[in-house]
Design brief:
Elements (H helix, E strand, L loop, with lengths): L2 H25 L15 H4 L9 H14 L1 H4 L8 H6 L17 H10 L14 H12 L6 H6 L3
Helix pairs in contact: 3-7, 6-7
Length: 156
């Protein structure tokens, strides 16, 4: 007869434990989706001057880095339609459009490349010194220049 109180105690303990676990799950509130924090670039980064001239050597180095680290999202031509961005359904700027980066300083571009932004991972220590500025120069070079014939037809 002693066996029944032990079994009853074990069953009762299991039921209480299950009830406790279930109630604990019910009291958890789902994480509220908060608005993404505003992305701010420090003023000193915005004012940073690109020390590397966009010479052919810089552009060649920048293109090599871009093809390794950036083209998968931004596209080989800078159109913002790389395979990864398309798969993730992330809208990106079209760097071929001269207006896309018109209001951005080289310092801003360097900051975003180095530190990342949103879904874009940071290059961090991989983009140091001239390599960072070579990337900035190359991204800027992707903008298509306005055809000379179109520019001539416009009134000042």
């Amino acid at each position: 007869m002693r066996k029944y109180p032990v079994v009853l105690w074990v069953v009762l303990s299991a039921v209480l434990l299950a009830a406790f676990c279930a109630s604990a799950q019910d009291t958890e509130k789902p994480a509220q989706a908060s608005a993404p924090a505003e992305y701010k670039i420090p003023p000193e980064a915005i004012k940073q001057i690109n020390p590397v001239k966009p010479a052919p050597e810089s552009l060649a180095r920048g293109k090599k880095s871009y093809n390794l680290d950036c083209a998968m999202c931004h596209g080989a031509d800078g159109g913002g339609k790389g395979d990864l961005a398309t798969d993730m359904k992330v809208p990106l700027l079209d760097y071929r459009d001269p207006k896309a980066l018109k209001d951005k300083t080289d310092g801003e571009l360097a900051y975003v490349i180095k530190n990342g932004k949103g879904e874009m991972p940071a290059e961090g220590d991989r983009a140091q010194g001239d390599r960072l500025w070579d990337l900035v120069n190359y991204v800027r070079s992707l903008a298509k220049k306005e055809p000379a014939s179109k520019a001539k037809n416009q009134n000042p």
